[in-house]
Amino acid sequence: MLAAAAIAATGMLAPVEADAFQAAAARPATVTSDVTLVAQKPKQPAEKFRRRVVRLVTDEKPGTVIIDTNNKFLYYVEGNNRATRYGVGVGREGFGWSGVVKIGRKEEWPSWRPPAQMRAREAAKGHMLPVVQEGGIDNPLGARAMYLFKGGRDTIFRIHGTNQPWTIGLNMSSGCIRMMNKDVEHLYERASIGTKVIVVGPGNRQGKVSFEDRGIDLLRTILGG
Questions:
Q1: Ranges of each domain in the chain
Q2: Is 22 a catalytic residue?
Q3: Which of 85, 102, 158, 160 is catalytic?
C-alpha cells in the first residue's frame, strides 16, 4: 500500500534542462542507434512497475495524472476509486522537482533538442550531443512525448518514452518523467492537451494532494476492465 499526502504552497521549481537518458549523453551523435545498447542490457523493470489497474482513493478528478516520484509510479485517475498505474523513471539527485502543471503539447516520435547548457556541459566531458536528433527508435524521447506547461509556458519537462526499459523505477533523468514506450503510447491516447498533472516530489510544491494506492484491482484485472 502506498500513501502520500503533502501540504505546501502551490508552485513549482524553475526548469533545469530537458531530459535525456544518460546513455545518449555518453555517446557521440554519430552512433547509429541504441539497439546495440538494448541487446547488451536486456534487463526489464521489476514486476511492480508493470502497467496495472489499481484501486486508488483520491479526490482528484477523473483524467488527472498524479506522479509519485518517490515510489516511481504515475497514476491516470479514472474515478470511482480506480486508476491505471504505470512505472516511471524520474529525475536523478539534484534534478527532482514537484508542482502542478498541464499537458500543453503532444507529439508522436518527437525530435530531441538538448539545451545549449547540456551540450556545453557534455562537450566539456568529451561527449558531443547533436543540436537536433530526429525522432526514431534511438531517440532519447522515445515513441511519444507530452510537454508539460505552467502558466501557458513550456517548463522544459516532459512525460516521454524510452527504449531503455531497465531505467524504469530509477532516478536517471534530468527531471523529465520517462515511461516504457508501450506505456507512454497507452497514456498518450488517454491524456489530452490540458490534462492536469500533479508531480509529487522534492519541495512539496505541488500543494495539497492526497491519494492512497490500495493495490491491484483484482476483479478488473481478471475481467480485463
A1: 49-223
A2: no
A3: 160
Specify the CATH superfamily of domain 49-223.
L,D-transpeptidase catalytic domain-like (2.40.440.10)
Residue 63 burial (CB < 10 Å; 0-12/13-18/19+)? middle
Residues of the chain with pLDDT under 70: 1-42, 225
Out of 12, 176, 180, 197, the active site residue is: 176
Handedness of CA 70, 185, 140, 64 (dihedral sign): negative
Cell of 38: 538494448
Is 176 annotated as catalytic? Answer: yes
Q: For 40-62, write each residue's pLDDT tens digit.
A: 455 889 999 999 999 999 999 99
